[in-house]
Amino acid sequence: AWAWFDGIKFIGKAIKTLWQRKLTVEVLDGVAIGAALLQKDYPTAGAVMYLLGIGDILEEWTHRKSVLNLAQSMSLNVDKVWVLVDDIEVSKPVNEVVAGDQIIIRQGEVIPLDGVVIDGVVLV
Length: 124
Description:
Elements: H1 2-19, H2 25-38, H3 42-74, E1 80-85, E2 88-93, E3 102-104
Antiparallel strand pairs: 1-2, 1-3
Helix pairs in contact: 1-2, 1-3, 2-3
Family: Belongs to the cation transport ATPase (P-type) (TC 3.A.3) family. Type IB subfamily.
InterPro entries: ATPase_P-typ_transduc_dom_A_sf, ATPase_P-type_domA, Cation_Transport_ATPase_IB
Domain P-type ATPase A: 76-121
């Protein structure tokens, strides 16, 4: 009985998709489950629905992970900068840089802090 109850959702999606004159994977899912149910092959119908459920869970997890990874890669991940101290370049944590420090930014590097260009040219 539960196979019919769960299977109706998939069959309904298939019919709705066909009604819109589309041929998508939902139609294939609905036909596979519907055929198994009509042949009273409930284990097969249940297995197909189970695998489709796992596929949905994996798709959602992959999407969330991709969005998180993209956000992390786009975020500013600079821990240290080069600061000019007595004409010597010294590595210093970003959170220890204070107003008035002269930081050195080279071509291709991320500009981690706001400031004024003292020497050279900057194209952002």
